[in-house]
Amino acid sequence: MPTHPCRPRALGGLLLLTTIACGPPRPDFNLVADASTDEGVDSPGTETGGEPGTETGGEPGTETGGAEFIPLPDMPPPSCDSWTHNCPDGEKCVPYPSSGGTWDANKCVAVMGAQAVGEPCVSGGWVEATDDCDETSFCWSVMEIDGELIGYCHAFCSGSPDNPQCPESSYCGVAGGGVLAICIPTCDPLLQDCAAGLACFFDGGSFTCIFTIQNIPAGEPCGFINDCAAGLVCLDAEPFPACEGSACCSPFCDISLGDGQCEAVPGTSCVSFFEEGMAWGYEQVGVCIVL
Would you say 25 and 18 are in contact if contact means Cβ atoms under 8 Å apart? Predict the structure, then answer.
């Protein structure tokens, strides 16, 4: 999803940074098209292909075929519905930012691969919106690696906007008024049960697998939730008097196992990550902070 300026989110008395760096964040868009020419098409008023001083295609001194080539305006791609996927066979309905900014449109693109949900994928970029995922999924959690946009195939949400459905252990992430509707896999921050290169972070809505960026250790300053190493969370500096930045990485912890899990950040204790009654199945998840 497109990023917003880094902002804190109140959570159980903590200030949690919810902006993600380098994926699913919007990568830099390149909307500058290369200039092109129509080879073999004469410009109106030029003389080619005949004797000097004559127009082609008729008797010397005469003018024939007087049609001028008028370029047609670029037509927007056919739109489709992200819930019914009403595209022709061999194509799929994908979201894209038509103006290079926010998710605001859908279009049909060719199915160009067979990578299944959960498998690595290569994206053609958000505006192009092509990838090598199969017809049931879209390349998401993307970041640039060695010049390619690499991500993982995420299932499209099924059902309807009023009753979205996703496979078990995932939720339907919606943006752009339903333009973007993909299933976001959830994870356990205590187990860190994500694929290689990903870590389990809280994205402001749920715990989900996101690319790690800098692998910053516990107690060190951070700016984005996925700056921290796996098993850590980027929190506002307020509960960390020794933090030398506006936010620092701190370990997740199991609140049933006590404060011994917090030795990486001296002086902190393991407290519940969520406010009472808001854990939604993550009752054991805590975080190390200064009480």
Answer: no
